[in-house]
């Protein structure tokens, strides 16, 4: 049986820009993100600016990003965003770490971390129906399909911490 990866989350810093840019420009990673294409430089800069701005977490649209690390190496990114319905979580895993349980560990950590950052909130995750690995990961962790909108499925965590 494979060993569960030992993943930690830490806040995103400006020094993580190159790692994020690598994810955002990799068509394997962006396949199920946004319009499914690698991001343009301006989109990357806009998202980085928002991530580093550190708006108050009570404010709508406030974001906090976290780097997922394994033995000091960045392996993924967790994105959290305050919205009217709660806090949306998203996760991107570097392709060389796919298939090892990294995404599941990242979601588990996000579920544990979000209340510390935002308070007790409803957790939401979006997934493309064709992204079966992601939809399976979410449902195994207690997220339930709530609705479909614009070609994406919205999952909510069935229980709160």
TrEMBL record:
Residues 7-161 form the N-acetyltransferase domain. It comes from the Bacteria. Coiled coil: none annotated. Gene3D superfamilies: 3.40.630.30. One of its GO terms (molecular function) is acyltransferase activity, transferring groups other than amino-acyl groups. Keywords: Transferase. This is Ribosomal-protein-alanine N-acetyltransferase. It comes from Kocuria turfanensis.
